[in-house]
Amino acid sequence: MSGIRVLELGNYIAAPTAGRLLADFGADVIKVERPAGGDELRRWRLVDGDTSLLYRTINRGKRSVTVDLRSDVGRKIALELAAQCDVVLENFRPGTLERWGLGPDDLKAVKPDIVLVRISAYGQNGPYRDRPGFGAIAEAVGGLRELTGDADRLPARTGVSLADSVAGLYAVIGAVMCLLRKEGGTVDVALHEAVFSLTESLLPDYEAFGVRRERLGGRMEGVAPSNAYACADGTVIIAGNGDSIFRRFMGVIGRPDLADDPLLASNDGRWARRDELDFAIGQWTRQHDIAFVLNALEDAGVPAGRIYQASDIARDPQYRARGMVQRFDVPGLDSPVGFPGVVPRIDDETAEIRSLGPDLGAHTREVLGGLLDFTADQIDGLYAEEVL
Question: Exactly one of 68, 86, 164, 278 is catalytic; which is it?
């Protein structure tokens, strides 16, 4: 993406995730933030200092500029910056950019082939267009929340901002497609649609056969055996649901009778007897520690893994070998901190993170002076007027 310049007007996670991905691969991403406080993500999960490591992660590789987009002068600056950019990212409620005089027509007037990427809760049209919404709501409306957790409890949420992150991925796909056709365009990503796209055959199965998926805890509908199993010293995940894998798996746990049972030769039969299989597997895993279980299954070619915590990722040799934990000095901390690496690897190389998310307004003078030819006195005056 070297040579591509991006103007990010987003807040929180969705649009900034798209900006992060573009920056990871070389795009010059200029993040516009409010002069007072900046992106609210700066204070989410804040442990110390004035900028959270969540912000540093999501906004890595970017330049931060403070501009009051609600002011006439701020609007003019934003349009001047857009004229120098290939892509504009935003995740405000529909109509917000238009009210600020920064809508699609305004942007195209200064850059006819601009790519405008818009992320919102429900998209830019439809009866829900004006409803507010965050990722948690999108996971519910998108059909995922009903599938997550145990059947006898309220639906659970994954431990990350899944809807926002997936929407950010789709936003990048849309931006790159528009850049490839070299005509500009508008990309419209709805959070709930991004989530819905992950639900596989949820809707087709219902409409064709009346199947209503339910929460299954650690299991996956129609797939067996695949679950979490208790060992003597912890828990492992084992996915022994392939036909040939299942036979090898049953050999490892000493159950050739199950391996040779013709009713268990296919996944349908195994799903029907999932409780019996999970009981047999659990009997074996509880007799051994995690290391023994994983070694035995690896030797037999059965997919299995330890449930990692952050400490496991930090010292794991596979992450290290592929450059997926990259360490940086963080202001106020005595030792380097590990951050997630860049995905995907290209040509057998992992891209290096250029910088962590910047301090608020760290590049305002650099960007306005370098791209828009503002003088130092002009910039000082805008600071005095609280436009910057």
Answer: 164
Q: Tell me, rounded to whole angstroms, the distance of Cα 284 from its chain centroid.
A: 36
Q: What is the pLDDT of residue 3?
A: 96
Which residues of the chain register pLDDT less than 50?
none
SS3 114: coil
Taking the model in full, what pTM does it have? 0.93
DSSP letter (8 states) at residue 185: E
Q: Tokens for 312?
A: 């496991």
Instruction: Give residue 262's pLDDT.
Output: 97
Beta strands per DSSP E along the chain: 5-8, 28-33, 62-66, 87-90, 115-120, 185-190, 226-231, 234-239, 304-306, 325-328, 337-340
Q: Give 109's Cβ-side CA count (13 Å radius).
A: 10
Q: Between the CA of residue 218 and those of 70, 148, 223, 348, what are the distances in Å?
A: 48, 9, 11, 34
Domains of the chain: 5-198+358-384 (3.40.50.10540), 226-306 (3.30.1540.10)
In sign, the C-alpha dihedral spanning 142, 148, 150, 155 is: negative
Give the closest residue to 60 by CA, choosing from 384, 338, 372: 338
Instruction: Give DSSP secondary structure letters for 157-174.
Output: --SS-HHHHHHHHHHHHH
Cα distance between residue 7 and residue 21, in whole Å: 13
CA dihedral for 21, 22, 27, 29, sign (positive or negative): negative
Tokens standing for residue 255: 């159950």
Residue 164 annotated as catalytic: yes
| Beta pairing class for 185-190 and 115-120 | parallel
> Rounded distance, CA 117 to CA 173, Å?
10
**pLDDT tens for residues 231-275?**
999 999 999 999 999 999 999 999 999 999 999 999 999 999 999
Residue type, 366: E
pLDDT in tens, 169-224: 999 999 999 999 999 999 999 999 999 999 999 999 999 999 999 888 889 888 99
pLDDT at residue 23, as a whole number:
98
129 is written with which tokens? 């267009």
